[in-house]
Amino acid sequence: MNIREKINAIAKERILILDGAMGSLIQAEHLNEDDFRGMNGSGNRRFSGHPVALKGCNDILCLSKPELISRIHTDYLRAGADIIETCSFNSAAVSLADYGLADMAWEISRAAAALARKAADAFSTPQKPRFVAGSMGPTAKSASISNDMGDLSKRNIYWDELAEAYYENARGLLDGGADILLLETIFDTLNAKAALFAISRLFEERNEDIPVMISATIYDENCRILSGQKIDAFAASVLHVRPLSVGLNCSFGAEKLKEPLKILSALVPCLSSSYPNAGLPNQEGNYDESPESMASKVEDYFKEGLVNIVGGCCGTTPAHIARIAEKAAQYKPRLISSVPRETLLSGLKLLKPGRAQGPVIIGGQTSDAGHNEFSSFIREGSYDDAIETAQDMIENGASIINVCVDSTGFDNAGEAIKSFINLAQCFQDVASVPFMISGTDFDVIEKALKCLQGKPAVASINLKDGEAEFLRKARLARRYGAAVVVTLIDELGEAVSLERKIAVAERSYKLLVFLAFPPEDIIIDPLVFPLSSARGEEASSALNFIRTSEWIRKNCPEVQILGNVSGLSSGFPGNDAVRNAIHSVFLKHAGEAGLSMAIVNPKSLCPYDKIETDLRESVEDLILCRKPDALKRLRELS
User: Fold this and answer.
1) Which strands form 245-250's sheet, in the order they lie side by side?
2) How far apart are the C-alpha atoms of 561 and 593, rounded to whole Å?
3) Whose CA is closest to 89, among 219, 202, 185, 229?
4) What integer is the mean pLDDT of 623-638?
5) E strand spans, 86-162
6) Is 365 left (phi over 0), alpha (psi -120 to 50) or beta?
7) What distances in angstroms separate CA 395 from CA 429, 596, 601, 602, one per listed residue?
8) Distance linking the first and last C-alpha atoms of the chain
9) Is the C-alpha dihedral spanning 206, 142, 269, 271 positive or negative?
10) Distance of alpha carbon 447 from alpha carbon 414, whole angstroms
11) What is the rounded (10 degree) CA torsion for 307, 308, 311, 314?
12) Where would a tag sit more exposed on the chain, N or C end, judged by fewer CB atoms within 10 A?
């Protein structure tokens, strides 16, 4: 078995124990500057003349005072830890730069993993294997939160810099012998997604499947992290990497983590973890909660079946871990099999598209292709006006915002979408909903994805340029943590007839599933054409859409179905009542057939049973191809 399989096998039998705080034990040593420089002990003395003060840079102790780090690892292993963390929480170049050590990220990360590897191997037995988790902290910078009140679209760090730093950090940890990569104390999901993107690149290069543990820290009692994202929305944003575990650490202590743990436990289809602080710090910054008190509170997790991996964060010691391990041995681990597979999208909040409440409405007015005014706002840099357009959509019922700027044809489309999305993330009502990033230029789509901490959808990919390009874009979207919208287009063009739609849908679905793309992250758009051009083969476009939806619902389990409902009335002469009736009638019949997501201006919808009878029947005759003169009668009514 590989490492993932070994840990999952153990987790079926018992709760695994993670170690406790590294920093708290280092702090208790009362080290001075000479200790950090390697002047006292058997470490590397090469930092004796380093121009920047090193006190507080715990990670450098892996080189300058390795015997201390090794002793801490040993103490936790003796306490019963199955997994020990490397002393590398701040070993990414972004964090090490504060100490003038940015160019040593790989070396420090590798040394940290090597020390933990040696300690774990000394305690490991066939009956109780010990594992090394390479600790990767969040850095002190945020890619989601603006630090410039004069320009809220600016950030003090961006995706590419974070991804490069995390890549070197992860590379060093794996080179030093880490079994697992642990992305922890996450306060900004965009930072975490950049790290996961870098990690996936490293795994592809090495052709390895290294387990990844992911752990966030709660900022307030509303189950949010510092960047404002709810904990369930956070989980949805990181599940694309098939993590070993998702959980919580640090925060407010064990007792206050129980409720957010319940949310995660019910949502994540992998192991769940928790390693809280030993209560809250006192006025001196120390943690007073005893091992017995903390273990008693953590025991509530075990009683309710909330965790598979448990340990300690700030203020915890080997004594805390020993008491927690004693309690954990008395209980069964959390069951994972009961967690359903379902489509999850997110902004700051979680969205579960489905059919129970009718199709989810996607505000199409923020697409430059569907709204000339919005296009002008983006081209002119009038982002405040563009934000107002998005807010109007949400206020009128849109649950997802569809954003596309690449069809406007201006040179700086990528920078424009970056500025718009960064600014949009500063408005809670807009940032709360998931984004759908639409367009034909995938470079522009990537720039947008690098700004979104939630889980978006990419619209769209298709088979027009062949299978290789289709799968390349699907893989890339997946690495960014996005669902994909698949339009029914192939090398022969748009699928119009029912037979062609089904054939392209089946081929696209099978290709993605073979790629191991989760079916619940596939959204199929069967394509519907304007009713105003209802002649020839396209006369049955709406009906073919409905019948294709029925086929997809039966043959492609867990897939979502999307329709551009606004396009139905495109170019249709007539008043708003006719256009609104077209949208509402189609939504009713397509929804019954399986449609779960609809791009439409929510203002253009009206209750089906409130539509005037003659108008409703004429629209239905046209959509369902019941009468050949339906289009003529509808034009007369308009």
Assistant:
1) 16-17, 309-310, 271-276, 245-250, 212-216, 180-186, 131-136, 83-85
2) 10
3) 185
4) 82
5) 131-136
6) alpha
7) 9, 20, 11, 9
8) 68
9) positive
10) 6
11) -50
12) N
User: What average pLDDT does the chain have?
Assistant: 92
Taking the C-alpha atoms of residue 255 and residue 78, their distance in angstroms, rounded to an integer, is 26
DSSP state of 196: H
Q: What's the pLDDT at 368?
A: 44
CA–CA separation, 430 vs 399, rounded Å?
10
pLDDT above 70: residue 367: no
- Structure-token match 């409703």, residue found: 616
CB 599 within 8 A of CB 617: no
Query: Backbone dihedral region of 290: left (phi > 0), alpha (psi from -120 to 50 degrees) or beta?
Result: beta
Per-residue pLDDT averaged across 274-298, rounded?
A: 92
**Closest by Cα among 205, 218, 204, 174 to 86:** 174
For residue 299, the number of C-alpha atoms closer than 13 Å in the C-beta half-sphere is: 13
Give, in order, the Cα–Cα distances in Å from 579 to each of 112, 399, 566, 582, 623: 64, 21, 9, 5, 13
Average pLDDT score over residue span 45-59: 94
Query: In 3D, which of 153, 155, 150, 140 has the Cα closest to residue 187?
Result: 140
Task: In whole angstroms, give the CA distance from residue 228 to residue 473.
Answer: 30
Burial of 442 (C-beta count, 10 Å sphere; 0-12/13-18/19+): middle
Axis crossing angle, helix 189-206 with helix 231-238, rounded to the nearest 10: 20
Residue 369's pLDDT band, with cuts at 50, 70 and 90, is: very low
Question: In this structure, what are the phi and psi dihedrals at residue 486, rounded to the nearest 5 degrees?
Answer: -105, 115
DSSP β-ladder status, 400-403 and 435-438:
parallel
pLDDT of residue 432: 97
Three-class secondary structure of residue 401 per DSSP: strand
Q: Which residue is it, tokens 């990690």?
A: 199
Query: What are the φ and ψ backbone dihedral angles of 461, each rounded to 5 degrees?
Result: -120, 155
Give the tokens for residue 295: 């273990």
Q: For residue 537, what pLDDT is reported?
A: 53
Please check the confidence at residue 275 and state whether its pLDDT lies above 80.
yes
Q: Which domains does the chain have, with CATH numbers?
A: 3-21+77-328 (3.20.20.330), 345-601 (3.20.20.20)
